[in-house]
Every structure is written in structure tokens, then in C-alpha cells.
Design a protein that fits this description.
The complex is a heterodimer of chains A (201) and B (210). Chain A has 201 residues and is of the alpha/beta class. Chain A has helices spanning 2-27, 40-59, 123-142, 161-173, and strands at residues 72-73, 83-87, 91-94, 97-101, 113-114, 121-122, 150-155, 178-185. A six-stranded mixed sheet of chain A has the order 1-8-7-2-3-4, covered by helices on one side. The relative contact order of chain A is 0.15. The model of chain B has no long low-confidence stretch (mean pLDDT 80). The chains are: A alpha/beta (201), B alpha/beta (210).
């Protein structure tokens, strides 16, 4: 009796195992036979990261051009959409469009300025800004607002005060009124420095 | 058995999408700058607006001249005397000899004394409500120095160790300045605002470099 019982028990066990296997197979997708890599969770992750990146990519109203070491400041005002000028070691840019190349030492060539060397108005920049103002004015008109004349300046840490004033004076000539300097938010310790600056002594 | 024979819906082939996503993610990660950009608001006087306000008392003027040699604070047209340790007749706060070799222009200046001098002016009763500061720099002074000067001059600071934010504190050491945070006071509608030092910055035309 005992060995017969054992055989039956073994048979029942084997059947159970078969059933469990079959159930497992049914639970999986149609190619359950193959052992696949579980990519679902990775796909989920990727989708989330992609959405997050796309969002932060589209949100940034200010584009910092390469070769521009923007200084750090403790300022907290959030950027808004407005005319953006970039001044770095190479030249003056409106958004991404190069308007003027700078001479050695970060100066505007005397032949580009009204009144030569001591002049404050940069002529090519003024022409571009006037065009821009006209465009902005017509946009403001058609949407029932008034042209505010806001401008954001993204400047490199090494840009001289002289050049900065020349740019602002030119913009004032083209009817811009309010100016904002873009900076990178940081602590008081880093203020005035730029990311990648030599360490504090 | 019949139930099992219902054909499964064909799965969408995700391989091309996966490929695209795998390319897009590194690309965007490279592009994303994990830095917050903020703005400093400044004004620059219009060229014609100079002589318009001549009636009544002469307006109070606080000017800060920045040069490579240091900072000169000018109160109503009167330059302040040089602080202890700086040559008389020179800038109010001179750039210290010990920092002469710093790699960055910003690191060559004595920011602590500048802050304390401005704080002293703010604590005088006739300057307590004054908000404007005119910053005028030498042609060659760079933007980094200007930004730091504005950070120092715009809002009041307290050392990190102080639990209670109090106004009008004089900072004692450079470390304290480096770790300092802005004083927050009760503003309108239960919001906290920064305690002003001289928050309205007006930029002037550059002086000639020496």
C-alpha cells in the first residue's frame, strides 16, 4: 500500500506543478516561452524623464549662450519673456543672432560707434533694436497692450562696465526703459563669481 | 479551450520608440542647465531727464563709485573719509593689499567693509527711508564686481548663526558675510520681504579708468 500511495502522491504533485506552470504561462504574454528582459519599468521611467525634460526645456525663457560666464547673485526675481541681449567676450547677440563682434579686450570698434572712440551709441545694435522695437510695438498694439520697453541683459562676468553702459545707452536710444541683468542664483559667498571660476583663496 | 484560442491583440512594436527615447534623454540631459536664472532690476536715467526736478529741496543722493582701487561712497556730493587702514584722500573702502593677487577681480575687493559702511549710513535717521543708490563704476570694472556690489548694497544681511533675523546688524568677519542670508521682515499680507538697504539701483555713466 505504501509505495502505491507514494506513486499516486508523486503523480498528483506532478500534475499540480504542470497546472501551476500552465497558469504562469497564461499570465504572461503570448511569447511566454522566451525569457525576456523586463523593459516595462524602464519604459515608464524613460517616459517620465522625457516629459520632465521636455517641460524644463520649453519653460526656460532665457537661453544662455555658450562662452558666457554669467555671474552668481543672491537676486530672486524670476525671469519673464522679453527682449534678451547677450554680451560676452566675443560679441553682442540678440537671442542667438550675432549683431556685432567685439575687438580684442572686449571693446566695440570705434568705427561702429556714433562719435568714435568716446561715443556711447553702438550703431549696428541700435539699428537692430529699432527694428525689434517696431515689431514689439505692433504686437503690443494688436493685442491691446502698451509697449513697456523691458530688456534683459545676459552678460559675461568679464564684460567691462563701459561696454555695459554703451549697450544700455544704445537701448535707451531705441526706446527701451527698464533693464534687468540675468544672473545665476546662488549664495552670498559665490556672488559676483561664476560657475567654474578659480576657487576662493 | 475555445476561450484560449481568441487571438491576442498584436503588441505595438516599441523598439523604434525606445531607440528615440534613448537618444533624446542624453541629448536633453546635456542641454538642461541645472541652474536657476534670476534677474536684478536696474534703472539708467534717460539722457534728457537730468535737470527736470529742480524744485523744492535738493534730492538726497547716495553714490557709490567703484574702481580697481576700491569703493568711494558719496553722500549728497560729499565723499566719505577713508576707513581705518586705508590711505586718507583715497577711496572710502580700499582694495586690500593682501588680496591683490586674487585671480578674480571680484575677490580683490573688501566687500565686508563696504557692507558695514552702507549699513552705518542706513542706520542714520535721515537715510533710513532712502532707497536709491547710484552706482558708478570705472570703465574697466567688470560685470562680476558690479553684480556683487549690487548684492551687497541692495539688502540687509544677518549672520547664519543668528536665529532671529534682526535689522541693522554690522557683520564682523568675512566668513560671516559669506554665510550671511538676507533679513526677512514681515511685509504685506503676511508675506516675508527682504529688509531693504538701498534696493533701487541707478547706474551712472562710467568714469574714466585710472
Amino acid at each position: 500500500m505504501a509505495p502505491e500511495n507514494n506513486d499516486k502522491q508523486a503523480q498528483i504533485n506532478a500534475q499540480l506543478v504542470e497546472r501551476i506552470k500552465a497558469k504562469r504561462k497564461a499570465g504572461r504574454s503570448h511569447d511566454a516561452g522566451k525569457v525576456g528582459l523586463g523593459l516595462n519599468s524602464m519604459m515608464d521611467m524613460m517616459t517620465i524623464i522625457l516629459v520632465f525634460l521636455l517641460k524644463s526645456y520649453g519653460e526656460e525663457p532665457l537661453v544662455v549662450l555658450p562662452n558666457t560666464d554669467v555671474p552668481i547673485s543672491v537676486a530672486e526675481v524670476q525671469p519673464t519673456d522679453m527682449t534678451v541681449l547677450t554680451v560676452n567676450k566675443e560679441g553682442i547677440f540678440m537671442v542667438r543672432q550675432r549683431i556685432l563682434d567685439l575687438e580684442e579686450g572686449g571693446k566695440v570698434g570705434a568705427n561702429f560707434k556714433k562719435g568714435g572712440e568716446s561715443g556711447l551709441i553702438i550703431e549696428p545694435l541700435e539699428a537692430e533694436l529699432r527694428k525689434e522695437v517696431e515689431k514689439l510695438k505692433s504686437i503690443a498694439m494688436s493685442s491691446g497692450r502698451t509697449f513697456e520697453g523691458d530688456m534683459t541683459i545676459i552678460a559675461d562676468e568679464s564684460v567691462s562696465y563701459r561696454l555695459l553702459v554703451e549697450v544700455m545707452q544704445t537701448a535707451i536710444g531705441a526706446e527701451f526703459k527698464k533693464f534687468r541683468f540675468a544672473v545665476i542664483q546662488g549664495s552670498m559667498k559665490e556672488s559676483g563669481r561664476y560657475s567654474g571660476a578659480p576657487p576662493l583663496q | 479551450m475555445a476561450k484560449n484560442k481568441v487571438p491576442d491583440a498584436e503588441d505595438i512594436n516599441l523598439t523604434p520608440i525606445m531607440n528615440m527615447v534613448l537618444v533624446l534623454i542624453p541629448l536633453m540631459l546635456l542641454n538642461v542647465v541645472f541652474m536657476t536664472i534670476t534677474l536684478i532690476e536696474v534703472t539708467m536715467p534717460q539722457r534728457s531727464a537730468g535737470a527736470a526736478m529742480n524744485s523744492g529741496d535738493p534730492p538726497k543722493r547716495l553714490q557709490l563709485f567703484i574702481s580697481k582701487q576700491g569703493f568711494t561712497i558719496v553722500e549728497n556730493g560729499m565723499p566719505l573719509n577713508a576707513i581705518d587702514g586705508c590711505a586718507a584722500g583715497g577711496p572710502t573702502v580700499c582694495a586690500p593689499e593682501s588680496k591683490k593677487d586674487a585671480a578674480l577681480e571680484t575677490d580683490k575687493q573688501d566687500w565686508l567693509s563696504l557692507y558695514n559702511e552702507l549699513m552705518k549710513i542706513k542706520s542714520k535717521s535721515d537715510w533710513a527711508t532712502h532707497e536709491q543708490i547710484e552706482i558708478v563704476a570705472d570703465s574697466s570694472v567688470n560685470f562680476g564686481v558690479l553684480v556683487k556690489a549690487m548684492d551687497i548694497a541692495r539688502f540687509q544681511l544677518v549672520p547664519k548663526s543668528e536665529a532671529e533675523a534682526t535689522k541693522g546688524k554690522v557683520l564682523t568677519s568675512e566668513e560671516e558675510l559669506n554665510e550671511a542670508r538676507q533679513v526677512l521682515i514681515d511685509g504685506e499680507d503676511n508675506t516675508k520681504t527682504q529688509a531693504a538697504l538701498f534696493p533701487v539701483v541707478i547706474l551712472g555713466l562710467p568714469t574714466v579708468s585710472q
